Amino acid sequence: MDSDLHKKLKEQVEDSTVDENSCFILITCNEPKGDGSMHVEMSYEGDPILASYLLENAQNIIDEQTS
Description:
Blueprint: H1 4-16, E1 24-29, E2 40-45, H2 48-66
Antiparallel strand pairs: 1-2
C-alpha cells in the first residue's frame, strides 16, 4: 500500500513527465525501526525492461560512489 508521501511524489512525477516514452522509478522508505527493519515502497511507470536497466545502473553508480 502506498504511503501518502509516495502517492504525492508519484503524482508530481507523473504530472511533470510529458514524454510518452519516459520511464521513471520511485523508491521511498521510512526511517529504520529499532529492530533495523524499514518499510520500502517502489513504483515505476514505463517499460519494465527499461526500469530494470535504470535500477541496475543506479546501483552501479551508488556502488562507485560508496567505495
